[in-house]
Specification:
about 500 residues, about 10% strand, 3-stranded mixed sheet, about 40% helix, Amidase signature (AS) enzymes, alpha+beta, 18 helices, single chain
Length: about 500
């Protein structure tokens, strides 16, 4: 553990040691009992010597082996390496020592990282470096036991790639898990692991969180380093984070991975104190705006999305907050949706550059999925002048969004998605634009502007399907989002809800 991590652990250790939940006060003997504990409670059992790191890992492996054939959430197993790490004498004594987790697309040197692409798998593209995100995760004592399913190059809001096939939703296996962190969210919802790595370039953490009934935080731009392997160091939209089942896990995990890394060009202002210390802190009376209509009003939200946000608005009002039906003026249009669609091809170019270098020629149609190839073609047809103008438009859009917060608003409340998870195949059709806009229109604005946002599992339909609510904070105010999310979790707990397919 380096000095940076030691200082973080010193700050949060008293809070961890002081948590004596009923779940952690008994030493569970069975895998399914461990499964219902969050990451903090699992680590507490290890700290007390009531469960070993190996026992936690073995229990998670058993759960994956039992459930994954149904869900297809985990697509790469690192079980032997994980068991070796659990037994190692030098396993770091960090705040989540021994807790098993799953990785999405972050790089490990010398390990495959195909990002859901058949072509990258055929070329056996491997990591050249280990990302700082992975190093910080491991220095906290966590043990990576596999990788999760994702769409090709993270470029779809549903997880249905040619390489791995569809991930299936544990609440209804005929439905999408969302994307691109669909496998991660399904694995956490089904209790395979308490937390899993997620990334978010246009809603890829929050959309799956909504679809699977878990917590998903997209941090502020620059809050969590993307270095050193990712070409996203020059990208303005992505953020790395986690999907979890508790707000306190989300807070601690942000503490673990937050901070700049080598080569970063964008960094966020440092927080006043560790994020875990925000859990349970009084929010004060916040001014919260909410919207129940779709941005631009081009499509209608499902009635359940409207009910979800209305129920959350009533609860926030009951908790003493000032709640108005108000939203930033740019959301009266679909401009953010168009901006992200024009911007995304640059990501595809970055992620395919190594493959083209290895091929020694441009990628051809048919070698990647049709939608991905269309984005690659679009990038090839876009001039530097056009891309420069696009960046200026994104900057202007961001400034207009921030004007709303300058009027005194603290948080914007929206549905995370405009519908429940659609049936598999719905979002991959050529005529799926209306469904895609309904499904994903509330999330990309956060990536364009760099604002922090969190999806919370606050609503279930009469049919038992989750639909998340999204809280969007002012720039760098993850602390406020964590305080407010913890308040909502205490008022309307969700951890007792588990899907039909679970450990």
């Amino acid at each position: 553990m380096n000095r940076r991590d030691a200082l973080k652990f010193t700050a949060v250790a008293p809070l961890l040691a002081g948590r004596e939940s009923g779940a952690a006060s008994r030493a569970p003997a069975q895998s399914d009992q461990l499964a219902r504990l969050d990451a903090i409670d699992q680590a507490e059992l290890v700290r007390r010597g009531e469960v070993s790191a190996r026992e936690l890992v073995e229990a998670a492996i058993r759960r994956i082996e039992a459930i994954n054939p149904t869900l297809n959430a985990v697509v790469e197993r690192r079980f032997e390496l994980a068991l070796q790490r659990a037994d190692a004498k030098d396993l770091p004594n960090g705040p989540l020592r021994g807790v098993p987790t799953l990785l999405k697309d972050a790089s490990i040197a010398g390990a495959p990282n195909y990002i859901g692409s058949e072509l990258l798998a055929k070329l056996d593209i491997q990591g050249q470096y280990t990302d700082e995100f992975v190093l910080r995760t491991e220095r906290a004592g966590m043990i990576i036991i596999g990788r999760t399913n994702m769409p090709e190059l993270l470029s779809a809001p549903t997880t249905e790639s040619r390489l791995h096939g569809p991930a299936r939703n544990p609440w209804d296996t005929t439905r999408s898990t969302g994307g691109s962190s669909g496998g991660a969210a399904a694995a956490v919802a089904a209790l395979m692991v308490p937390a899993a790595h997620a990334s978010d370039g246009g809603g890829s953490t929050r959309i799956p969180a909504s679809a699977n009934g878990v917590v998903g935080l997209k941090p502020s731009r620059g809050r969590v380093t993307m270095s050193p392997s990712s070409t996203d160091w020059i990208d303005i939209t992505p953020a790395r984070g986690w999907v979890t089942r508790s707000v306190r896990d989300t807070a601690l995990l942000l503490d673990i991975v937050a901070g700049a890394g080598p080569g970063d060009t964008l960094t966020a202002a440092a927080p006043m104190r560790p994020y875990l210390q925000e859990v349970g802190v009084d929010t004060g009376r916040l001014r919260i705006g909410f919207m129940r209509q779709m941005p631009g009003k081009n499509v209608m939200p499902d009635p359940d999305a409207v009910r979800a946000v209305e129920a959350a608005a009533r609860l926030l009002s009951d908790l003493g907050h000032h709640v108005d039906e108000s939203h930033p003026a740019p959301l009266d249009t679909t401009e953010h949706f168009e901006l992200i669609r024009q911007y995304w091809p640059v990501k595809v170019v970055q992620r395919l550059s190594e493959a083209e270098a290895k091929l020694g020629r441009p990628i051809r149609e048919g070698e990647i999925e049709p939608g991905t190839f269309q984005m690659l073609r679009k990038a090839r047809e876009t001039s530097m002048v056009e891309f420069g103008v696009l960046l200026k438009r994104i900057h202007q859009y961001s400034l207009r969004m921030l004007e709303w917060y300058r009027q005194g608003f603290d948080v914007l409340l929206t549905p995370t998605t405009g519908s429940v998870a659609p049936p598999l195949g719905t979002l991959t059709r050529s005529d799926a634009v209306p469904d895609l806009m309904r499904w994903g229109a509330f999330t990309p604005l956060v990536n364009l502007t760099g604002l922090p946002a969190i999806s919370l599992p606050m609503y279930w339909t009469p049919a038992g399907l989750p639909l998340g609510i999204q809280l969007i904070g002012n720039i760098w105010r993850e602390d406020m989002l964590i305080r407010l999310s913890a308040q909502l979790e205490a008022a309307q707990p969700w951890q007792q809800r588990v899907p039909p397919v679970h450990a």
